[in-house]
Design brief:
The protein has a seven-stranded mixed beta sheet, with no helix packed on it. A hairpin with a 2-residue loop joins strand 2 and strand 3. Helix 2 crosses helix 3, helix 4 crosses helix 5 and helix 6 packs across helix 7. Helix content is 56%, strand content 17%. It is α/β, with parallel strands linked by helices. The protein folds into three domains: 117 residues, no CATH class; 56 residues; 57 residues, no CATH class. The longest helix has 48 residues. It is built from eight helices and seven strands; from the N terminus they run αβββββββααααααα. It is elongated, with a radius of gyration of 57 Å.
Length: 311
């Protein structure tokens, strides 16, 4: 039976669809990175001095999560700091993290691996970067930056090794305090003697502490016995604290004293008259004055009052 050379349109459309789907998947695998081709994305730009091998389709990360990819990388040579322009496609679902002070930096997957772009989120509350806006570069790292720093690092290591060598030599030669501590046997001898003395002192302190504790215990026992005697009313102090008669006598004496003072204040009795009678006070005062005058006169004229005769 002879086959027909005609191709059915249905089979042709199926072949075209399968081919288109395969091409689309291949394109997505190279261009879409780890993000879905159906996710809504926006475009921002950034400028580098050196991209260190960044290529189209490289992933864009935010907080360690892939949120887009590099759309294009090409030269613009605006100034020495902006020689290469990178266009980034970023999912709109994380667009609110890219505020006015957001930054980008280059990173490396592994020590010599592929490059990626890391977005550093900005301060919440600031205006969000617009579509096609520019993100500033935080700092260009990567292997080149590490290699550029190697001379300074190497110089620091050399200086450190030289200092360590000098210190080791000083220690071995016995120079300085540390060197003498390392080499002088007298220090060891003195240290051993000091430790022996410290041990002796500690032993004496322990014995002294034991004696102090024993004396303290004895003192507390005596105090307890004295307190018990006082509490039971034994001795003068015990009777003073426990006998109610003392309180009664003191209270009675106080009442009597108050009565006597009240009588004196009212002018009763001799003491009351002496304290309150102004005339009596004047008479006593005059009497004292006359006695003083008499004594003075006797001292001046003793013959007037005393006559002496021998025969």
């Amino acid at each position: 039976m002879k086959r027909s050379g005609r191709i059915k349109w249905g089979n042709l459309w199926v072949g075209i669809f399968v081919t288109f789907a395969a091409l689309l998947l291949l394109y997505t695998s190279f261009r879409g990175g780890g993000t879905s081709m159906f996710d809504s994305k926006g475009v921002v730009v950034t400028y580098f001095q050196n991209v260190n091998g960044l290529v189209n389709g490289a992933p864009v990360w935010l907080g360690g999560v892939e949120v887009g990819n590099v759309k294009s990388v090409h030269f613009v040579d605006i100034d020495p700091g902006r020689r290469i322009k990178a266009v980034l496609r970023v999912e709109r679902s994380v667009w609110h993290f890219m505020t006015a002070d957001a930054k980008v930096k280059l990173g490396t997957i592994g020590f010599l691996g592929d490059k990626y772009v890391e977005i550093i989120p900005g301060t919440p509350g600031l205006p969000v970067v617009k579509e096609g806006g520019e993100l500033q570069v935080l700092g260009e790292g990567g292997l080149d930056a590490l290699i550029a720093k190697m001379p300074a690092i190497s110089g620091s290591i050399d200086t450190l090794l030289t200092n360590l060598k000098d210190i080791s030599k000083r220690l071995i030669d016995g120079t300085g305090s540390a060197g003498r501590m390392m080499t002088d046997t007298m220090l060891y001898t003195n240290l051993v003697a000091a430790l022996d003395k410290a041990t002796t002192v500690l032993d004496e302190l322990q014995h002294s502490q034991k004696r102090i504790l024993d004396n303290l215990g004895s003192t507390l026992e005596r105090a307890d016995r004295v307190t018990a005697k006082i509490d039971s009313g034994q001795g003068s102090l015990g009777r003073l604290l426990n006998d109610d008669n003392l309180y009664v006598n003191v209270n009675r004496s106080t009442a009597r004293l108050d009565s006597i003072l009240s009588k004196i204040d009212r002018g009763e009795g001799s003491a009351g008259s002496l304290v309150n009678d102004q005339q009596l006070y004047e008479e006593i005062r005059n009497l004292v004055v006359r006695v003083e005058n008499l004594v003075s006169d006797i001292e001046k004229n003793p013959r007037k009052y005393f006559k002496f005769s021998v025969f």
